[in-house]
Amino acid sequence: MADQAHNSDNSGVSLTGSAPDHQNQFPPQGEPIFTGINRIGLWSLYIKEVRRFLKVQTQTIWAPAVTTLLFLVIFSVALGRSGREVLGVPFATFVAPGLIVMGMMQNAFANASFSLLAGKIQGTIIDLLMPPLSEGELMAGIVGAAVTRAVMVGGAVALAMAFWPGVDLSAAHLWAIIWFGLMGAVMLSLVGLLTSIWAEKFDHNAAITNFVVAPLALLSGTFYVISNLSEFFQMISRLNPFFYVISGFRYGFLGQSDIGSTDSAVAGAAIGLAIFNFVLAVICYRVLKSGWKLKD
Description:
Layout: H1 2-11, H2 39-54, H3 57-79, E1 85-86, E2 89-90, H4 91-122, H5 126-129, H6 135-162, H7 174-198, H8 202-218, H9 231-238, H10 241-254, H11 263-290
Antiparallel strand pairs: 1-2
Helix pairs in contact: 2-6, 3-4, 3-6, 4-6, 4-7, 4-8, 4-10, 6-7, 7-10, 7-11, 10-11
Main location: membrane
Protein name: Transport permease protein
Domain ABC transmembrane type-2: 55-291
């Protein structure tokens, strides 16, 4: 009996063949064992996405900066002659902030809309779906990288414009520059991620870019003040979220905008954008959670 008891202690199994209690503490099969945030996985995904666009930074960072600068050159030559002023500042100074944030938003969309779509087309989508990342972490990594690209493009455009004659990029309200720049980048990153989920080929992605993003950006008061429009088109402009991003960002530089020239008016637009982005984030999360177009 003593030998049997000794053998039972060494094997870790009782004489009746039942396992000790500590072996029954594992979660049932299929239940996740990670709790909280998978910081290492999230950081790895973010770095992967950032390195992806930095490998071709001539195309993803500097080319958009040159294209945006060409907009400034063309419109300054065409409309900025004879000392024309808008909102009390030279036309080039008026249009520069709008071009900066427009470039930021368009490139945030381009980066986020490529991530999942490329994986679906190339058959590597499993590399994003298999790692132990929740839907929120997957969304945060892709959106974070897109916002990083947007900030880099905005910095490159601002640097180029700072040397353009007649452009003054002095900051009147730094908080507005940071807030509206980030809110615009996050908004287009989420739209880009939704597009990446929905699209099945690059033509679908291009359709959203050409028929949704580009028109909303160009018809948002980037090159004009909406007070020059009729009341009907002013109302339409105020329904365009791009208008609040561009006008709020411009307020950060000029201290005035189409939204208003007071902190309270611009703060209302800032809160509205935050709510709009929150709704977009919830929609994006629910779509990712459902696995629509990803796990079918």
